[in-house]
Each structure stands twice: as structure tokens, then as C-alpha cells.
Amino acid sequence: MSDEPPTPPSELSTDIVNTLDDYSPERLRHVAGYAEKLADHREREARLGEEDEDEIEARPDDLPDDVPLKATTTIKEINDNRYYYWQWRDGDKIRSQYKGPVNPDE
């Protein structure tokens, strides 16, 4: 280990460097620990934000905004006619939303 103090990264402002220079070794270790945890947290938030963007991009074009991604398409028969419905679980309830008639040619 050198007798010279370390050179601060150029990305740090003079104010931060001057503040850290006044800190005791124990306080510097607390700051370092906090900085590591904060960096981990920010990286995790960024990853989750990217996953949310991927989820939004993966949303089917015909899925309405008020229908969750976990919804599935089901067919219901009403008065001898068949219809598509979006269906999903919301707590203890099953929710449905009309999608359109079933094309008999499919």
C-alpha cells in the first residue's frame, strides 16, 4: 500500500471529494457500504424497468388496456352463438370482457 492518498475518480465533484477527505475511516466505510447498496438498488430498478418495457412491447395488439396480460381467450356460447371473451382471475373472482364473435370459418 502506498503512503500517498488515492487519486479520486474524475467523475466525483470537488465538493464530494472535499467532504470525503474530512471523514474518519469508519465513516468512510459506512459511506462505501451505503454507496454499494444504493448502486445495487439502482441497477435492480433499471433491470425491472427494462422488463416492464419488454412486457409492454410484448402486449398483443388486440389486448385492451384494461385487460391484464395474464388474461386468456375463452369461448362462450350464448343463444346458439359463440363469442370470444378475455378472461382472467382477479383475487377470488373470474373477470371476463367481450372480445368478439367466433368466426365459424376458423
Account of the protein in words:
The structure is a single chain. The protein has about 110 residues and is of the alpha+beta class. It folds into two domains: about 15-55; about 60-105, no CATH class. It is built from two helices and three strands. It has helices at about 15-20, 25-55, and strands at about 70-80, 80-90, 95-100. It has a three-stranded antiparallel β-sheet with strand order 1-2-3, with no helix packed on it. The longest helix is centred in the middle third of the chain and has 33 residues, at about 25-55. It is rod-shaped, with a radius of gyration of 28 Å. The termini are far apart. The mean pLDDT is about 85.
Summarize the structure.
This is DUF6788 domain-containing protein. Helix content is 39%, strand content 25%.
Shape from CA axes?
rod-shaped
**Share of β-strand residues:** 15-25%
Strand order of the largest sheet: 1-2-3
The low-pLDDT segments are none
Number of helices: 2
In whole angstroms, how far apart are the ends? 76 Å
Whole-number mean pLDDT: 85
> Would you list the SSEs in sequence order as H and E?
HHEEE
State the share of residues found in helices, binned by percent.
Answer: 25-40%
Largest sheet, in brief, is: 3 strands, antiparallel
Number of domains: 2
Q: Which structural category fits the helices and strands?
A: alpha+beta
Number of DSSP strand runs = 3
Organism: Halorubrum laminariae
Domain DUF6788: 61-105
Region (Disordered): 44-68
InterPro entries: DUF6788
